[in-house]
Amino acid sequence: MSADALHALADAAGLLVDWVDVASQPRTVADTTLRAVLEAMELPCATPAQCADSQRRLETMQGRPALRTAVVDTPVAVEGRPGAAYKLLDEHGQAQEGRFDAQGALGPIAVPGYYRVLCEGAGEEGIALAVAPTRCWSVADACGVAQPRAWGVGLQVYSARTPLDASIGDAQGALDWARRVAAAGGDALALSPIHAARPLQRHYSPYSPSDRRFFDPLYAAPALVLGEALARQALHAAGLEARLAQLNAAALVDWHDGAQAKWAWLRALREQALPEALQADLQAFIADGGPALEQHVTFAAADAGDGDPGLHRYAQWLAARSWQDVQRQARAAGMRLGLISDLAVGFDPHGAEAAAWPQAVLHGLVLGAPPDAFNADGQAWGIGSYSPAGLRASGFAPFIALLRAVMHERGGVRIDHILGLLRLWVLPDGGSAGDGVYLRYPFGDLLRLLALESWRQRCVVIGEDLGVVPDGLREVLAAHGVLGIDVLMFTRYADGAFLPPAQWRRSAVATTTTHDLPTLAGWRIGRDLDWREKLGTGGRIDRAAEDAQRSQDVARLQAQVRADGGDSQTLASWLAFAAHSPAPLALLPAEDALGLEEQPNLPGVVEGHPNWSRRLPQDTSHLDAALAAFATARGEGTP
């Protein structure tokens, strides 16, 4: 059949038939891929007649939205009858009356929030409306200064050591780091994802969670909530003291054995009688959690095979209160932001979050990434997401609930792959990453809801905007107060020379590296090239050419560091170089603060590299000096 009908349906369904790749080359998605994805979206397309019928169904589904979004102080288009009366109800039941203008729009609304418009033809429930501020809550808002020069540390939670963490890290380890950062004058501790996970399989990734609305109980720090005596009493009763000591001596996380030990401890803790005040707090937590918590713990109990929702209810309370205490102590220590959470881009398609919103998720499709400079074959992440149609039909309820969960009692949130608000690379489950297609999302609606919840929670928003970004998107995000991320090794001119710090973005967070990239020490010696050569990732490698290129890049960085007034030979000067950025917030990864050579994760690798398993060294005696130097460098930069 002619491709015209297929392409028209694909476009109506939000699929980008034509797109531009990492090399700026135009690409067209194969018809076989379009058919496979459309079939997964339950849009039959084998014949022109089926395409036409599916397109008509789409048009019917895309009628009046369940929730409209708008911005303060601008007319709100709701297709009302011109001149007809309406009543505007806010969240507290307060009413304002008015009349639709000649275009059927509401008059401007000055106060951000959620509203209902009662009018002729809108039914008893009326028209649901979310009115957003013009931008997200900012670092300047949080710090109370116009040109902040805040800084903090990025921490892989599992990597921080404490005596009772079973080798897998916990909130106590994060608190220890928060105290040291705060003592040096820092304002933030950015965490790796701490979402609820499914029972651990052979491989672990914090970016493949079961449910992003809830916590991973493995990171609970019992002593923070229950006190040292009760925590150790349960540990002794379970006979776990020697096992934890053995696990803690390991250089790498033992996810399987560590998780088993932690759950054994959690079961022993749950069997203890709680003091009256803590028992009351547990009951209050359960009441506040409502049906969402009950649904989650019921799923988790079945998924774990223990059939004990009460255990998972208790574990969620312990984890939530642990992180609540870390944030409280971080702010009390002087941090102006405190914890920055990390929101994974998707979830396990067979996990609790997918089960909670079955009508709103993509079925038969998973997320990935098209081929790029780092992964010639693209990436199939194996995680799911919400469907654009499902989000609209639900009034964006899953997205709003998610934002409220990850922003609650946090100073900020880093959104992984912020491009996902605009488009996501989807492919049939089990298919090749190269056989995918971009799926468009309701960007304007999602961005307005992000700004609204950011202000309501007083939470700064950081959007990971690395890789191929459509022209103009960074500017749009910046205008809405979403900070990008400037990474030292990528912040260059077109010819490869490094930008001086003064030319880094003021609308981004400055950092030296990320969990998916080499540390600065590792980059300088080509440790990432060693791994690529060993594992064969990213295609064949001409090691001599790669080494020559890396030597040239190191020399380029050294030249710019010298121009910035630093000692080009020392890693400390490289860190200071990034700290001099005018960014409102600079984040120093813990690995770079400690001068480590190995990176936390090697993308595209399942075997051969200890992804998400590297623990920080036991000796961190030189950390305080590194933090002090970074703080000094932040003070030297140009606002």
Description of the molecule:
It catalyses: Transfers a segment of a (1->4)-alpha-D-glucan to a new position in an acceptor, which may be glucose or a (1->4)-alpha-D-glucan. This is 4-alpha-glucanotransferase. There is one protein chain. By secondary structure, the protein is of the alpha/beta class. It folds into three domains: 3-61, no CATH class; 73-132, no CATH class; 147-348 and 383-421 and 442-636, Glycosidases (TIM Barrel, Alpha-Beta Barrel). The protein contains 22 helices and 23 strands. The chain has an eight-stranded parallel sheet with strand order 20-17-14-11-10-23-22-21. A five-stranded mixed sheet has the order 3-9-8-5-6. Strand 8 and strand 9 (127-132) form a beta hairpin. Helix 20 (571-579) packs across helix 22. The protein starts with a helix and ends with a helix. The mean pLDDT is 95.
SS-based class: alpha/beta
Q: Total number of β-strand segments?
A: 23
Catalogue the unreliable spans.
none
| Percent in strands | 15-25%
Please, how many domains?
3
- Separation, N- and C-terminal Cα atoms: 60 Å
CATH-level-2 architecture of the largest domain: Alpha-Beta Barrel
The biggest beta sheet, please?
A: 8 strands, parallel
Would you give the CATH topology of the largest domain? TIM Barrel
Please report the first level of CATH classification, the CATH class of the largest domain: Alpha Beta
Number of helices: 22
**Taking Cα atoms only, what radius of gyration do you get, to the nearest Å?**
25 Å
Mean pLDDT: 95
CATH level-4 homologous superfamily of the largest domain = Glycosidases
Largest sheet, order of strands side by side? 20-17-14-11-10-23-22-21
Instruction: Give the fraction of residues assigned to helices.
Output: 25-40%
Shape estimate: globular
